Inverse folding.
């Protein structure tokens, strides 16, 4: 096990009706909040009314900034920063999924950052403070409700970069699985792939003596797969949504990756897809992850045997570890297929013409100094291109 | 799954050498700390010198209060409260195991409490604020390095009571598994029983649809048992101590019990033993837990079958669930025996003369209004006495 530093202070208020407590929960921290959300669905569902009623009951004023889109845009972040400064906002309340929350985090950081907040993305630069963010989660997927990350798309530069810092974890998140009942089926599917990937990126490691976190990863993955299929069969299954949503938070609050070298190659490869083609992050991950596994597993066969056996339930002869691994990957593909997720880039509408460009951007070869990606297996741009090619 | 509220903001800085960072870690929070510890072992080991050197390097002044004993005493807490007030202390640095940390928490609460801090113990009363506590952990067992609890013994009244509140979680904890190398073997054994019990108390539940936390509990228990045996065979096995210590923190930071009705009967029954006989908490738990399982399992056989199969690795016919359960309990007893833990009260030096008194104190029958204990199975004083009797 490696040394680690775990700090995940987000308060998670979880269960039926918790969105109605938001005013009371925020009262100690804010007199005026920025209500940040996406489009009309929060209004249609009545959620907007319940949240604004809760704020008003607690005497919390609010101004609004809506219009966050999947793969949240830097231009709206700039708008939010200006608005928070102008309106003397105390806290940003993000009502939505990962895109809204990531946008809120970027705004929160930007309000107190002396410069262009985009300068921080893709770096490990420190910040002094930020405007706190709270969330009412409407889509379990990105894990941003308690994670230390924010991913923003610079639409001008066609770049999608992240900023990670324990200081940007939300102050608190209200998570009511009932809010997930009306999600479109493809968002369920993409969300599950994203949550699983958050575990995979931490699970696949060359670090040894990691019994606890191996097990935490495996349990989280099995919970996600089992309950995704249950929800898929009944979109109003509260208990299955609750386990899925809770697992999505645990998948990305940092705990299951502590003390392990992490990978993150699949996320980096996928970010190039969605930066250019604006595809659903989880759908991109579902295409790339099994392909990455096939490409990388020979570098640490035992790790992948453990995945096949402990996560995918493969049984068989340990004298043929390749067969075990390939059966595990095949079952993962089958699971993604059952969830209705794509298996190729072409199904995502991505042609072959820009694969090399994306491979070079993922590894920074496009910007002069190539930096291989991936913790378990180092991938150079040619490797990334090879992986893209296998699933074109 | 039940609604829940999870808030566990303790920063855990884990790994080799982390105790030497303590001055740097505390610098943003304190100019003057109370250094709180037990006896001479921290001086003999050189830990005291390393910690005071780290504090001095960071310009942090300190005053000392040593003398914390296992089952920490209220009288020393009073002394600490007076000292902190007199010396204008900013933060209490607990160097030790659960007893030292629990004592530090009680002092921290008491400093700002307008009244006798003992009034809070055994209640759910709210507090406004406390003096923050940081820890350098020397014994993985109590989980107090990130838990929301403090257990104090009122030596005059022979009462051992706890106070639980998310506000009393430590600010940060430095955990270096190397510090555990010199622990006496019986402290390893008692510590493991305590850590396992923190999971058992959350695991055994009548709440259904708890896939994620079922799995988290099971993984934590298996990690504890496997690595306890490894350490038992080699007290300097860093990797095994690391998994054991990390699992001990996860066992008691609250996560694995979220959304579940919890039990806590074994802890309540054990507190009566150590309040009167001053036995090691973990040793008492090792005696009582299997006896409680045998007494309680018929109230929820399926829960105990899951324990037997998923935790203890029992295989067999599911058409005879009692046999599966009893085999699981038998394997747990065998594990405790291998660790050198006692199986009877008489091995702890506890006779039969005060069993009824303890049973009546545990259930408050001794104080007029009986309150049954236990979430999975309600235990009245006669039940507690029955359990004590089976292991006398």
């Amino acid at each position: 096990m490696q040394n680690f530093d775990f700090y995940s202070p987000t308060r998670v208020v979880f269960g039926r009706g918790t969105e109605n407590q938001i005013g009371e929960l925020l009262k100690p921290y804010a007199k005026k909040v920025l209500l940040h959300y996406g489009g009309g669905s929060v209004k249609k569902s009545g959620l907007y009314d319940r949240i604004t009623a809760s704020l008003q009951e607690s005497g919390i004023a609010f101004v609004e900034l809506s219009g966050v889109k999947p793969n949240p845009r830097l231009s709206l972040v700039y708008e939010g920063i200006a608005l928070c400064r102008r309106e003397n906002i105390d806290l940003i309340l993000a009502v939505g999924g990962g895109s809204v929350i990531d946008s809120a985090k970027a705004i929160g950081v930007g309000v107190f950052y002396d410069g262009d907040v985009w300068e921080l993305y893709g770096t490990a630069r420190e910040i002094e403070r930020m405007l706190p963010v709270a969330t009412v989660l409407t889509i379990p997927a990105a894990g941003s409700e308690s994670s230390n990350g924010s991913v923003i798309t610079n639409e001008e530069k066609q770049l999608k970069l992240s900023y990670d810092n324990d200081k940007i974890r939300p102050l608190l998140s209200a998570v009511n699985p009932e809010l997930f009942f009306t999600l479109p089926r493809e968002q369920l599917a993409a969300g599950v792939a994203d949550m699983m990937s958050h575990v995979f990126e931490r699970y696949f490691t060359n670090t040894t003596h990691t019994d606890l976190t191996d097990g935490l990863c495996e349990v989280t993955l099995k919970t996600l797969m089992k309950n995704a299929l249950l929800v898929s069969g009944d979109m109003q299954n509260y208990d299955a949504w609750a386990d899925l949503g809770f697992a999505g938070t645990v998948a990305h609050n940092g705990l299951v990756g502590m003390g392990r070298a992490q990978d993150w190659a699949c996320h980096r490869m996928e970010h190039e897809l969605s930066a250019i083609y604006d595809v659903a992050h989880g759908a991109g991950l579902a295409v790339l992850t099994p392909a990455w596994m096939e490409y990388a597993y020979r570098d640490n066969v035992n790790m992948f045997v453990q995945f096949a056996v402990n996560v995918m339930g493969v049984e068989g002869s340990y004298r043929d570890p390749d067969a075990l691994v390939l059966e595990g990957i095949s079952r993962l593909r089958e699971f993604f297929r059952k969830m209705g997720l794509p298996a190729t880039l072409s199904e995502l509408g991505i042609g072959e013409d820009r694969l090399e460009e994306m491979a070079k951007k993922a590894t920074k070869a496009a910007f002069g100094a190539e930096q291989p990606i991936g913790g378990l297996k180092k991938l150079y741009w040619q490797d990334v291109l090879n992986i893209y090619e296998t699933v074109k």
